[in-house]
Amino acid sequence: MEMLIMYAPAHTAIALAAKRMNPSASLIGLMVAAQGSELLWVIFNYLGIEHSTVDAGGMLHLEYLPYSHSLLTGIVGGVLLWALLRFVFERKDVATIFGWVFVSHIVLDVIQHEPNIQIAPWMPTPGIGLDLQSIPWLDFAIELAFCIACWAYYRGSLRLLTGFIAINIIDLPLMFAGDGAASPLASNAIILPTIVLVTIIAAWAVVYAFHKPRKRSVSATEEGNLNYERTDAHEHNP
Ligand SMILES: [Zn+2]
Predict the structure, then answer these.
(1) 235 CA distance to ligand 1 centroid (A)?
(2) Tens digits of residue pLDDT in 114-150
(3) Interval between CA 132 and ligand 1 midpoint (Å)
(4) How many CB atoms sit inside 10 A of residue 178's CB?
(5) How far is the CA of 218 from the centre of ligand 1 (A)?
(6) Ligand 1 centre from 41 Cα, in Å?
(7) Model confidence over 44-97: pLDDT tens digits?
């Protein structure tokens, strides 16, 4: 089975880079927005609105995903999220970054997917996709490099880097599993979206757990200084 969907780490990495760009945005919120289209895909697969197919050679194709993964859905979703934050929640400070992060999903997927991304849900052709997934080693190398670039931009800890490498490696069996392995998916519509949902949650968990810089002994000294200043201020202002 070749998985024909962009793996969770790259989408999660872009959320991390966005957090660096706009620290007042919630990391969890950004990670969810970056996977907005994928979460829709999971829900639509469970509901039978979208589906995958397995061809005669046992190869899995996401094939029918016009609602969660059209260019229009990605762009309109980003605009709606921006408008919601800007005008309903009055979070002008984070509205723009959230909008772009939502749109980023479909942009990354266009690079990776086989040409199965429609311009709009009602336009079956042309299908768009640069098909990076068809060369698994290159796909793995590029997605890992992308994660490392986002990590470097975020200035993450070594633990976070290790976490990114781990979640990329965990996805390897999905990239390289042989032909025919996808066949159980032909008769069961629940397995694939569940696997994808698990990889999404695993990537969120790893990145959230390790996103903070490791506490160093220096912070104890800084805390001591703070306490000292507080005591000092108290004495001057009884
Ligand atoms: Zn996707």
Answers:
(1) 59
(2) 999 999 999 988 999 999 988 989 999 999 999 999 9
(3) 13
(4) 9
(5) 42
(6) 8
(7) 999 999 988 777 777 777 778 999 999 999 999 999 999 999 999 999 999 999
The encoded tokens of residue 53 equal 């197919």
Instruction: Please give all residues whose CB falls under 5 A of ion ligand 1, grouped by chain where several chains appear.
Output: 38, 109
More confident residue, 9 or 183: 9
> How much distance in Å is there from the Cα of 107 to the middle of ligand 1?
9
Q: Where are the domains of the chain?
A: 8-236
HSE (side-chain half, CA atoms, 13 Å) at 3: 21
> How close is the Cα of 191 to the center of ligand 1, in Å?
17
On average, the pLDDT of the chain sits at 85
Distance 106 CA to ligand 1 centre (A): 6
- 30: CA distance to ligand 1 center in Å? 15
In the numeric block, which tokens belong to residue 38? Answer: 């994928």
Mean pLDDT of 211-216: 74
